[in-house]
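To start, one record:
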Amino acid sequence: MFEARLVQGSLMKKFMEAIKDLVKEANWDCTGTGISLQAMDTSHVSLVSLLLRSDGFDPYRCDRNISLGINMESMAKIMKCASNDDVITIRSEDHPDNVTFVFESPNQEKVCDYEMKLMDIDSEHLGIPDTEYDAIISMPASEFQRICRDLSNIGDSVKITCNKDGVQFSAQGDTGIGKIALKQNAVIDKEDGQVSIELNDPVSLTFALRYLTFFTKATPLASTVTLSVSAKNPVAVEYRVDDIGYIRYYLAPKIEEEEEN
């Protein structure tokens, strides 16, 4: 038997919004320590990694490890049926064909019960190697979202350059060039608004803005986003959710044309 009850059900709705446009179907792996998901996007360009720890649920029960093959679009439609203040319970049997979602209003006067068929998804669990990053940038999630949105109006790619002075995001397109520079320890907004940088080596890498913009759909989950960048390694974009876990996205850098030549 598997059962996980999330008192702050709106979190599950936000997690779904952060995943559904990138990943169409994935296995939710349920163990005694929590729920995890790891999946490539449909183009096999980016990777999503999600962890929901068992102690973030009340109660949490998982008698044996199970894998729930879920169609994200279907689950997202069901999650939209839950109100933001509902308590959400996910329940399934040990050899599941279906998964059940139960939405309870805070006063328990309304209970909604949705049963969804599971899929048989053959997926390979990719080992994510530990990486020594050249720079780790922590900044307000809302500011990162704004930068991605604004620079998307200029070009398709963003160059992230990090050095001792701070971090710069730049884009180039037919209309011209856009640059946004943030200084180390700059306060962008008063709450959780500081930019902090752990710098081992200066680094400059280019990424597809389309995917970074997809990643910013996780902004409602956390006030701060962490970008971990390293030469010739995928950037790790992490939104850490207090008391329950995190969602991480990985995206390989674009190879500069001069390197190709």
User: Anything to note?
Assistant: The radius of gyration is 20 Å. Residues 2-117 form a domain with the Proliferating Cell Nuclear Antigen fold (CATH 3.70.10.10). The chain is about 15% helix and 45% strand.
